[in-house]
């Protein structure tokens, strides 16, 4: 057989069967002590109901063995160490009851951080200690989470700063290169304008020289031709003689 709560195999000497739904449970999963289980086994076998059936019965305001069982456990848990020890001091029952009531009242009114023995911790006291422990854990977790988040944010800030610095440096380099290129282009444009001016001046001079040469040619070439003709005739006459 397997326990409905933990789904583990149960020894026959440790099981309980619900009188309503016939579900099988291990008494350990029901927060029962072995002493309580052994002492009330016959009653539990006869009328015990599982927590699910007990919750349904509670909504109908019905008393069940499970409710009585947890009430008994609560009463036993509220007992102090003095209640569990045998009465060896010779005091009467009234004195012991008064002492028990005083201890319970003092424990319920004060919340001390000094560790106590398990025997003197009631359900209420256990709840207070559990709440205190959970609050301590919550505060510690919140501090750790805040620390981790702060560290992550700082890392992101550093990385973002390094990235922006790198981009700014690259932008400055590009701007410097663009400025150098602009300066070079301006210089080349000036050189081009200067060369064009010089070329135009040379063209103008060349045209002037060409015109002057044409004028000289038209003026002196006929005269040179006539002199050349006379020289040739003189040379021929000399050759005949």
TrEMBL record:
It comes from Spodoptera exigua. Keywords: Coiled coil, Metal-binding, Zinc, Zinc-finger. GO terms for molecular function: zinc ion binding. Residues 185-219 form a coiled coil. It comes from the Eukaryota. Residues 1-56 form the PHD-type domain. This is PHD-type domain-containing protein. InterPro entries: Znf_FYVE_PHD, Znf_PHD, Znf_PHD-finger, Znf_RING/FYVE/PHD.
């Amino acid at each position: 057989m397997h326990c409905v709560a933990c789904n583990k195999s149960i020894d026959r000497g440790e099981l309980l069967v619900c009188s309503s739904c016939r579900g099988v449970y291990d008494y350990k999963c029901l927060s029962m002590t072995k002493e309580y289980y052994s002492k009330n086994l016959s009653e539990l076998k006869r009328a015990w109901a599982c927590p699910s059936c007990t919750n349904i019965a509670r909504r109908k305001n019905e008393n069940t063995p499970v409710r009585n069982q947890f009430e008994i456990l609560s009463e036993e848990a509220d007992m102090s160490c003095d209640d569990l020890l045998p009465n060896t001091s010779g005091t009467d029952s009234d004195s012991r009851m008064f002492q028990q009531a005083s201890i319970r009242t003092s424990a319920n009114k004060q919340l001390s951080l000094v560790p106590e023995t398990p025997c003197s911790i009631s359900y209420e006291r256990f709840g207070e200690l559990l709440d205190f422990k959970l609050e301590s854990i919550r505060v510690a977790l919140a501090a750790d989470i805040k620390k981790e988040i702060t560290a992550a944010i700082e890392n992101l800030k550093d990385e973002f700063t390094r990235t922006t610095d790198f981009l700014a440096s690259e932008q400055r380099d590009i701007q410097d290169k663009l400025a150098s290129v602009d300066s070079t282009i301006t210089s080349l444009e000036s050189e081009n304008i200067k060369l064009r001016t010089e070329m135009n001046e040379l063209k103008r001079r060349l045209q002037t020289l060409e015109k002057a040469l044409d004028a000289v040619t038209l003026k002196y070439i006929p005269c040179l031709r006539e002199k050349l003709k006379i020289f040739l005739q003189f040379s021929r006459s000399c050759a005949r003689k």
